Amino acid sequence: MACNGDKSLRDGVQRTCRIVTVPTDRQSLQYSHTMVAAPKSFLGSLSAFESYDTTVHIGTTFPNKSLQLSKLLTAPNSDELIKDLATLVSHRGVVFLTDQDIAIEQQKELGTRLGELSGKPATSKLHKHPISEDTPELGADVSVITSTGGISRPEAHMTSVRASKGWHTDITFEPVPSDYAILKMHTLPSVGGDTLWASGYEAYDRLSPVYQKFLEGLTAVHHADSFIDYAKRFNVKMQDPRGSPENTGTHLTAIHPVIRTNPVTGFKSLFVNQEFTKRIVELSPDESRDVLNFLSQHISENHDFQVRYRWKTNDIAIWDNRATFHTATNDYGEELRQGNRVVSIGEKPFLDPLSKSRREALGIPFNVVPGL
What we know:
Elements: E1 20-23, E2 28-31, E3 52-53, E4 60-62, H1 69-74, H2 78-92, E5 94-97, H3 104-116, E6 143-146, H4 155-159, E7 178-187, E8 195-199, H5 200-205, H6 209-216, E9 219-223, H7 225-233, E10 253-257, E11 259-261, E12 268-270, E13 277-280, H8 285-301, E14 306-309, E15 316-320, E16 324-328, E17 338-345, H9 358-362
Parallel strand pairs: 4-5
Antiparallel strand pairs: 1-2, 3-4, 5-15, 6-17, 7-15, 7-17, 8-14, 8-16, 9-10, 9-13, 11-12
């Protein structure tokens, strides 16, 4: 993929990339983008709060209520704190905060400000899930994640003998997908119901240089057929528009680069997922299937760049959908598992060929041999 301009990502200049048009049975889709943001630096405002890296490659935990998001939102240096939190989430993929007292309106406010303070377009707001309800209590921009069905427990996941089929990145079927997501779990089963995340940065870094370059020239079709089927079956009118003027219509289909650059970190990340990525545009059907199967296996089987979180009541996870994949664990039978999720809309995905991988940018050696 070629972009106009020859300066590095860190200069913050704009570069407009080529357009790919792919005819489908629904419409003519276009993939294009403009780079707008330089990587952000840490301001140091979170250093006073107790935290630790949950694993080597992904996850940071703020334990023992060390950081209360409700207080962060009203602090005198609130903007600085939220900027640093957004930068931390983008670097570590996901951040966990224990026993939070944040109310739903505050959760929405945080979802909005995380993206705004890290440079997302002014037209990007909170996402309205296509099949979510617009309730007086929550509104259309809050998704109820529940074990009773709907958006969070599609039948395909419930009937599959392979739990790995649940790995996904939120709403990649939208032309302008998510930057950050915030999930607060308020009702949990007695045991089970953990959530796993995997690092898109490390998934990219583990590929050979030749395979990385091969993928960097590719784009993929993302499609939410399960939500379309759900809407038709239960006569649900889809939300429209959905957090961006470009996220409209009922086709729920978009084209994105297979490798994208996160504008907050400048790192390259793998950007396909088993739930929504249907085919690679530039390859034959057989080639596309083989590549996507390999990449799905690459994500689900490398447990050393995953983190598994055991929820407690009122815990919150904040993750960067540009650089992670996640899946719930449906191992709790008929018990109720429920939480509220806010998803922020970010920028159109892009790949800057002058951006770097996480290991390259941070000087992490590639010759580390996993232990026994």
